[in-house]
Amino acid sequence: xxxxxxxxxxxxxxATGAVELVFVPSRPISRRAGQGGMIFAPGGGAKPFTFASxxxxxxxxxxxxxxxxxxxxxxxxxxxxxxxxxxxxxxxxLPAVSPTASxxxxxxxxxxxxxxxxxxxxxxxxxxxxxxxxxxxxxxxAAATSTATHHxxxxxxxxxxxxxxxxxxxxxWSLSGRSDFVSAVxxxxxxxxxxxxRIHRDTFWGMRSSNAIPxxxxxxxxx
Length: 223
Prior knowledge:
The protein is an alpha/beta fold. The chain has five helices and eleven strands; from the N terminus they run βββββαββαβαβαβαβ. It has helices at 71-77, 113-122, 138-142, 154-167, 179-191, and strands spanning 3-13, 19-25, 36-41, 45-50, 60-64, 84-91, 103-108, 127-132, 147-151, 172-177, 199-203. The strands form two sheets. The protein has a six-stranded antiparallel sheet. A five-stranded parallel sheet has the order 9-8-7-10-11, with helices on both faces. β8 (127-132), α3 and β9 form a beta-alpha-beta unit. It is globular, with a radius of gyration of 17 Å.
């Protein structure tokens, strides 16, 4: 995959405190909604990000939170329009889906970004959105789905997942968040009889947590 230079165009802060950085790429990056790339920030190292932008746009954007104050996040926070980053991609584990196909989208906090790209790219989705944790971009993604609920606590999400399993029997499930969160939701779905081929995972690359599938249905919330 080729390295592409990204020039920062605008910075958009959301009402929930997330930040979307919009870049002009030096060449078009062919991608589908839900994919991302490895982002290299001068002085900050590299980190993979899902692109938040419409897959037909001539702009590339990433949406994140800055509060962790890691070296990479400090490098992002110091950017001003005209500064450059570099990207390698696009890659991603979520499959391409038709907007008319029955889907359930489960996201933890800023893990909603692949679904943000999906909403912006397809406009209207035959989907149920279940979101837990910080409500970053919830309203925008919810507007593109058939039904959507946000939950502050894992108990509410567990119940909502159970309800969606019963209501969307033939749905494909896309899960996005920390690996422990994604594994916990996947375990709940498997226990409920959802076939493995219908469960698609997009974890936060590089975020360390147990790779084992939890033996309980404890679903981490914060992200």
